[in-house]
Amino acid sequence: MPDQQAQTLQGLVAETLRESTSLAQKEFALFRTEVSDNLKTMVMGLAMMVAAAVFAIAAIMLFTEALVEWLATVVGSEALAALIVGGVLLLIAVGLAIYGRNAISSASLAPKRTMHSLQRDGQVLTERVSG
């Protein structure tokens, strides 16, 4: 009987090691996927911030040109057109900046799904050992 119990115990230990290795591989794959997705979101947010900066620079240039033309002509027909275009570009820049800021702040590099899954796996293992 002791020989059978030792073999059964060895079998259980071997099975536990196989399952633990498989579980660790799956958790690592989930971790990699989650971090990759979070990085993609952050890169998109940064790209929007760069685009916002480009539009803001264009708006400042147009506002400056419009102000110069307006002061030069005092009539303002060309300046008014440039102010309208500059205002639209500024609105676009503000919209892109808000979108980019929200994308950066909502994306976290912390692998939340992986952590939750690891906690759940720990609970299951604890239940199996104590049960």
Descriptive overview:
This protein is mostly helical and 131 residues long. It has a domain at 32-110. 92% of the residues lie in helices and 0% in strands. It contains 3 helices and no strands. The chain has helices at 2-73, 77-106, 112-130. The protein is rod-shaped.
Tell me briefly what this model is.
This protein has 131 residues and is mainly α. It is 92% helix and 0% strand.
Low-confidence stretches: none
Distance from N terminus to C terminus (CA atoms, Å) equals 23 Å
Overall outline: rod-shaped
Q: Tell me how many strands there are.
A: 0
Proportion of residues in β-strands: under 5%
List the total number of helices.
Answer: 3
Q: What does the average pLDDT come to?
A: 81
Could you spell the SSE succession in H and E letters?
HHH
Structural class: mainly alpha
Name its key features:
92% helix; 131 residues; rod-shaped; 3 helices; mainly alpha
Give a topology summary.
Elements: H1 2-73, H2 77-106, H3 112-130
Helix pairs in contact: 1-2, 1-3
